[in-house]
Amino acid sequence: MQSLNSERQGSSPNIPLKIENMTLKEKINADYIAAFKAKDTVAKSALSGLKAKILEAEKAGSAGNELSESDLLKILISTTKQRKQSIEAFTNAGRTDLAEHESAELAIIEKYMPKLMTDQEIESALLELVKSLPEEFNKQKTMGMLMGNFNKKYPGLADGKTLKKIVEKTVS
């Protein structure tokens, strides 16, 4: 066992295993195992649900293909959106205990989301995208095109409400 441990960690068993080049799926799996060992029920529950969604998406895909990082990001985005909706529903129903549990699990899942862009970064990205639009445009159609193009180019990097507010300001 000592030799296996030394191979994984380097020359000394006290040097930690480097995990910098792990994929998102590998990080989720490693964190799930760590939460399981630490008996962290909230993290274990959140990561277990996330792993289940990833497995379901992989099985739905063609012949056991691995999901790309962008596919995993889409799963994270939909999962966080669902959790936020659940928190709102539980809060409106007066179930603060369930809302707090969902909030705790959401905090775990959000650790895997990319850092959101600032309003200024979103605005400058939108201004670049506006240059690619036709000169004559319908305001409503343009807003949809801008939001769609932004989300394709920068998936998960902006909150939907913030993006909509900035798009409305940019198109006006």
Q: Which structural traits does this protein have?
A:
2 domains; mainly alpha; 70% helix; Hypothetical Protein Yqey, Chain: A, domain1; 172 residues
Overview of the molecule:
The chain has about 170 residues and is mainly alpha-helical. It folds into two domains: about 25-110, Orthogonal Bundle (Hypothetical Protein Yqey, Chain: A, domain1), CATH 1.10.1510; about 120-170. Helix content is about 70%, strand content about 0%. The chain contains eight helices and no strands. The protein has helices at about 1-10, 25-40, 40-60, 70-90, 95-110, 120-130, 140-155, 160-170. α2 packs antiparallel against α3 (about 40-60). The longest helix is centred in the middle third of the chain and has 24 residues, at about 70-90. It starts with a helix and ends with a helix.
Summary of the model, kept short:
This protein has 172 residues and is mainly alpha-helical. It has helices at 2-9, 24-38, 41-60, 69-92, 96-110, 119-130, 139-153, 160-171. The radius of gyration is 21 Å and the shape is globular.
Topology, please?
Blueprint: H1 2-9, H2 24-38, H3 41-60, H4 69-92, H5 96-110, H6 119-130, H7 139-153, H8 160-171
State the CATH topology of the largest domain: Hypothetical Protein Yqey, Chain: A, domain1
Number of strands: 0
User: What percentage of amino acids are in beta strands?
Assistant: under 5%
Global morphology = globular
Helical segment count: 8
Give the rounded overall mean pLDDT.
Answer: 81
Q: Give the SSE string.
A: HHHHHHHH
Structural category is mainly alpha
End-to-end Cα distance, whole Å, is: 66 Å
Number of separate domains: 2
